[in-house]
Each structure stands twice: as C-alpha cells, then as structure tokens.
Amino acid sequence: MVIQILLLCGLVIFSGLAILLKDLIKAALSLAVASLFLGIIFFSLAAPYAGVFEISVVAGLITVLFILTIALTKKGDEVNEARVVKLAFPIFFILFLLIDGLVMKSLLQKIPALPAGPEAGNFGEVLWRQRTFDLVAQVGVIFAGVLAVLALFRKKEEDKDE
Amino acid sequence: MVFLFILIPLLVAAFLPLVGKLSKKLLPDVLTNAALAFLLFNSFLLIKPIFNQGAIIQNLTWFGEKVNLQIALDGFNLFMLFTISLVSLCISLFSIDYLEHYGHKANFYALFLVMIAGMNGLVLVPDLFSVYLFLEVAAVASYALVAFGLGYDELEASFKYLMLSVVASAFTLLSITIIFGMTGSLSFQAVAQGLQDLNAKLVIGVCLAFFIMGFGLKAALVPFHAWLPDAHPSAPAPISAMLSGLLIKVSGIYALFRIIYSVIGISSALSQLLMALGTISIVVAALLALGQHDLKRMLAYSSISQVGYIVLGLALGTPLGIAGALFHLFNHAVAKGLLFLNSGSVQHITGTRNLDELGGLGKKVPITAGTNLVGALSIAGVPPLAGFWSKLLIIMALIQAREFGYALVAILASILTLWYYLLIQRKAFFGRLAEKWLKVKEAPFWMSAANILLALICILAGIFFTPIYKTWISPAAEALAKGIQQVLMWGL
Known about the structure:
Number of helices of chain A: 6
Oligomer: heterodimer
Helix content of chain B: over 70%
Strand order of the largest sheet of chain B: 1-2
Structural class of chain B: mainly alpha
Radius of gyration of chain B: 21 Å
Low-confidence stretches of chain B: none
C-alpha cells in the first residue's frame, strides 16, 4: 500500500513538473518519468497490457520524438506564456481532481465486469504474441511523427528542378 | 492481400524520403500514384470473394508462425476501402502539379500515404484499441499536412485541430478503457458478446456518450464542429479534399457507426439522439455556409451539413436509410473532394479564394468552372447526378419510417444547399469578368485531369446508379444492418 501511494505521488509530481518546467527537455524527461511510474502502477495492478503500452509508447518512443523535435528548435523560438495560462493549469487540475473523485467513485461501483480471466502472460508475451497489430500501429504513429517533424522543420528553401 | 492496404502505403512512405534525395519530383509522383492505383485495383479484386463469402478473415503468418495480425473484411469496410482508394488516387494526381509551388514533394507524399495507411488500418482492424491507434496514425499525419504550408494561418489551424482532436481521442480512449474493464477484452467479437451478457445499461450509456463526443468531434458534427471551418480552408487544397472527403468520414462516421452497429447495438433512444444531432448539423451548417465569403470556408461548412445527412440516414437504422447514407457518403467523398480540389485550381489561377473578388471566370477557365458546377449540383442533389439518388434514398427511408418531420427538414435543407452552391457559381464563374482576370489561364494538366475524373464519377455514378448500388452499396448496407450478428459470425 505504501509503495502504491509513493508511486501515485511520484506520478502526480512528475506530471505536474512536465507542465510547469520551462526547459522543454526537462519537461519531456519529466513526462517520461511520470509515464514510467504509471507503467509500474499498471503492472502492480495486474494490468500488463496497459503497462506495456504506457512504457513502450509514452515513456519510450514519444520521449525520443519530443527530444528530437526540441533539438530542432533554435534560440529565439521561445514563446512567452501568458499569465492566464499559468493560472489556468492549477484551476483545471483541482477541478479535474474534484470531478474525477466524485464521478468515478460513484461510477466505479456500478461498473459490472464479466468474470473473464485476467490478461495472461509476461511483458514479451503480451507485446509480441497478443497485441502485434498495435505494434504495427505504434510504428505508424511514430513514423507519422518523425515525418511530421521532417516536414515542419524543413528548410524553407525552394526545391531545385531535377 | 487485404493486409496490403496497410502495408503498401507504409512501405512506400518509408522509402519516399530516401527516394526524394535521388529525384525530387518524378519518382515521388510515380511511386505514390502507382501505390494508390494498386490499392484501387486491389479493392476491385476483393468484390467477388466478399460477394461469395460475406466476410474475409485473414490471419497473417511470419515464416509459418502465427503473429496475431488479424484483419476482418466485410461489405462495409470493403466499400470504405474502395472509396478511400478512389478519392485519394484522384487527389494525388491533382497534387502532381499543385505541389510544384510548395516543393518537398517526397515529404508531402510520405505523410499523405501514412494518413491513408492509418485510415485503411482503422477500417480493417476488428479491435477497439487498434481502432484508436490507427485513428492516431491518420490524425498525426493530418496535423502535419494541415500545417504543411508553414504560414501563420496553417500553423494556427493545425494547432486548433490538434487540441480539439486530442480531446476527441481522450474521450474515445476513456470509453474503450471502461469497456475493457467490463468485458476484459478489446476485440469486436468478444466485446459484443460480453456486453450482451452484462446488464450494464448505465455504464454503456456513459461509454456511448464518450464515443459520440469523441467520434462526433472527429466527424465535426454540430456542436463539435468548431475546428473544421478553420482547419480545412487553411490546409493545401489536396489535404482539404482529403480531410473533408475522407478523414472525417473514416475516423468519425465509420468508427462511430461500426462500433454502434457491430459492437454495442443500436437502440431506439440512441437512434433518435443521433438523428437529432444529424438534423441539427444539416440545418445549422447550411445556414452558416450561406454567410461565408471564402470559397473553401463555405465548402467546409457544407461538409458539416452533408455529414449530417449521412448521420441521419445511418442513425435511422432501416436498410434503405443505411444504404442511402452510405451512397451519400461515397457521393460526398467524390463531390467534396472535387470541389476542394477545384477551389485549389481557382486559387492557383487567381491567387484568391474570396468570392467577392472573383467573377466571370467561366469564360476564361471552362474546365474548372464546368467541373465545379457538376460537383456543386451533385452535392445539392440535382438529378441525374449521383447526389440526387443518395438524398432521395435517405428521404424515402425517412418517409417509410414515418419520420415526416426529419424528411421535411432534409428536403428544405437540400434547397438551402442548392442556394449556397448557386451563390458560388454566380459569384465566381458567372457574371461580368473583372479586368484583373482577363489574362488568367486554365489550371495545369494534372489538376484539370483530376477535376475531370472526379466530375465524371459524379455523373457516371448517377447514370449507372443500379450496378453501383448492387456492387458496392448493397453488401455494405447488409453488413451493417445485420448488427452484432455480423461480428459474431466472423468467428475470430
């Protein structure tokens, strides 16, 4: 139980840091750490599917893409955030916690579940044998992201004729 | 063979950035168009097996070992694959000349093909989470494509589209999570079976509400439409055509109704709710379209309105309603694809999209004007063009189901549609030719060719309505009308 609470606290702290930190690289790394915490929580709750997705996609591939994109930005690209944005986040965060606490608590008790067997298998089993198609789609998402970075950070020079 | 719909666009997209280093224009043009032509040909090859067997289930093997790549194809998704392949081929033909002033063709085509692979994947996978993932593949590519011009408007529109799309994805994912929690499974078949065994009306209602919000946002149904009139006009013309013609239908309408019909099952309350949403979209967007001065913005509002017709027909749930809606989906994909490409031609010729600045262009650019007229009349539902038959089917289905109020609104809104399309004709192509347009020339060859091809499809689909209905629409409507039984018989 103590470990669970520590993991949850870590998740919330690093998620908050991901939004509040001004250095984009540090923010991206905080997000990766937050995802890692979430992935571990999923595993400890006997949900390896979710854990696998969280760690492989968010903590791994997306972080690489973020850092790649940030590496392509230059000095002078910084954007000054308005004060409203800084205030908006804590307000929305508290509101979300309230709604989540009230709605999900009452809804969770009403969600019936089939007596289906829990997801079986270890990390590799789940990733390679059961959710192969998701891997294809994940490759597609990452590929689309890389192509998007290539297209949007391209040099604005004219193509020369062949 | 079915898996090629995902594999070929992904593979070609992977090679294009490398090919682009060798040849900046010719090879990317040839490779992309050849890949899309092959996909169209492939969809024709699958008609016969679908007619004979009803559904094809394919399991992919890798060196003799099963790798759990499972694809389910029935009349409904074959119809979607055919529509995607046909319209995207015409759009990529148009892009050959249109992209000359953007440059970086290889990058553009690579993103374009990834978007098509995402849409094809979404249509083919029989699994809720895979649907979500392929939805994201198509979406990520489309954000970049909307911003491809790198201008302020493009980037702003892309950012707005991204933000609202993320909200849509979050709702969809939340709903999928709850369903997974209840049934312990994600495959269509197991979820459909599981939800039958559970008595969980309240929770299923919450899931449906999230799906309608999520996919409704993707389909730009009123009141979830705010992003579309910004995103579609700002994108390059081929991408506007792609988004309005295909993406909102695949990631919005196909996904929503596949899940409603084949996984959850449609109830009369849900049917009434969706019909009301569809009708509100038809009327509100048609009225908003009337007040627009930007040609592409008017077309974008028209897309929201026409999506309303499709939702109205599909939500009605009768075989005739579903068939009419699916035929309208096809007609709108073709005609709106044509009109957006055409607006690209107009912008290419004159440098503006402002209807108040245009006028009398019909005399100088007869091909652009003529094809625009065909597309406009088809969407407005003027006989004998294809759009007439689909709207007629939807209205007949509404009258058959004794939904006279909805039928009346559908007819009146159709007149409204004709009105704003005639406004485009009057302001852009008829009337007195302004002096500054005296020297304009017709659009380049491939742009005109793509416009002519799509206009011909609008005309021929109207004239040869019966064979098209029998070959494509009827099997698709049958697959959808069977409801959950269709998925249960797949035997996955």
